[in-house]
Amino acid sequence: MKLLFLLIPTSHNSLLPYILFTDISFNKEGGTFMGMGIHHVNVHASRSHVWEFIRDMNAWAPLVPGYKEHTIVSDVQSTWKFTLHFGVLSKKVHVKVLVTEWKEPSEVMFILRGINQKFIGEGFFKADEVNSSITAMTGCLMIESTSSLAKILESTFDKMVHELTKELTEAVGEAIERGKQ
Questions:
Q1: CDD domains of this UniProt entry (predicted)?
Q2: CATH of domain 2-180
Q3: First to last CA, the chain
Q4: Residue 70 to residue 78: CA distance in whole angstroms
């Protein structure tokens, strides 16, 4: 178990310390490649409205870039299928998602395990109330891969994870705002 210390930007132009315990090794020893993305958006909705959306995986799973389908197995487990794009290459990905913690009304933490690809990962969505109508939402995703595709595209792997995190976080924020109208 490793300790990861993140500084998350807030809407007040300050940084909020965030500590995450992780099993991901964050190194490239033995052909392992790490990618990390963290993205922050202000959502024009109350924190309770953001939580209503986030607690329903059926609401945000289709917002994953390259989404194909997902299956809810239980309250905490699901499988997702989507296509990742590495520059001109694309790869179908089938992943098991396990929610490790629901912290109502502010956070969901999850781990990922590749079913058809060699990777593990984890991430979270965190909602901090700015005021009664604006919520600061942070999405974080960390993926460690030993797949041949990650090895080939080592220089773009971290960028791909960062872009995936950004696109998903922004899509979730936009969907929440659309749902309010």
A1: SRPBCC
A2: 3.30.530.20
A3: 43
A4: 7
Q: What is the pLDDT of residues 51-99, one digit of tens each?
A: 999 989 899 899 999 999 999 999 999 999 999 876 677 889 899 999 9
Amino acid at 46: S
Task: Give the Cα-Cα-Cα angle 178, 62, 179 (nearest 5 degrees).
Answer: 15
Widest pairwise Cα distance in the chain: 50
Using CA atoms, how far residue 168 sits from 8, 32, 43, 146, in Å, is: 17, 24, 13, 23
Q: Tokens at residue 18, please?
A: 């965030």
pLDDT at 160: 83
C-alpha dist (Å) from residue 151 to 86, 87, 88, 164, 179: 12, 14, 16, 18, 40
pLDDT (tens digit, 9 = 90+) per residue, 104-133? 999 999 999 999 888 899 999 999 999 999
Euclidean distance between CA atoms 143 and 35, whole angstroms: 5
